[in-house]
Design goal:
Layout (H helix, E strand, L loop, with lengths): L6 E5 L5 H15 L10 H13 L3 E8 L6 E8 L2 E7 L8 H12 L4 E6 L3 H9 L3 E6 L10 E6 L5 H30 L12 H14 L5 H21 L11
Helix pairs in contact: 1-2, 5-7, 6-7
Amino acid sequence: MPSEAELTLRSADPGDVGALATLYVAARAAAAPAIPAIVHDADEVHRWLAERVASPDVEVWLAEHEDEAAGPLGLLVLEADWVQSLYVAPGHTGAGIGTLLLELAKGLRPGGLGLYVFESNPRAQAFYARHGFGEVRRGDGSRNEEGAPDIELAWPDPASLAGMRRRVDALDDRLAALLAERATLTAAIQRLKPVAGHAGRDQAREDEIVARMASVAPTLGADRLRRIMQQVIAESLDAAETGAPAGEQRPAP
């Protein structure tokens, strides 16, 4: 069994797809019954990997022995900040190959990583726990093709300061998208109102919005939500009037 020093990590190219598909299918089969049987045949796995190797938005890496005679011994598929797949060839588990690939993923995504493991696979759960991953949530299997209960994990551990900041960053990104969508709707509404802009603000409507939001998020309280929404509404109306983000000049006609 090769040592870590004898292993090479490199990006996969189209010529590697056949060997990687074979490794993927074999690794899934060898892991049974800890993980459910694969739901795709070898040809489908081959097409799936070929698409990912060719995609500019996906990184496919492999681990191989220095002389390359044994073919790929490990596979890593990174999609955005998600470890979509991490498998080691049967007979080579426990040699540090998975660790090398996971450390590579961390180096490529220092901001954090997410992945899923099956609830029935305690060995994988222990592996990722040793490498600083923590549980985010558990699922009933409705989110995976196998229909088997799973666990979402994240690195850094979601309970750590770095992990919590990563979760806040993700929420802030979603919040920014929601605010942009709200501003777009606000602009559309102004075209339908008899009096548009700040002059047409409807206090009764705004009170209704705050009351509804307070029922959804009672821990924030109506007063705090009112202050937040007053600012959101004001900025949305400004964006609708100027047609440009705050701080930018509207182009001259």
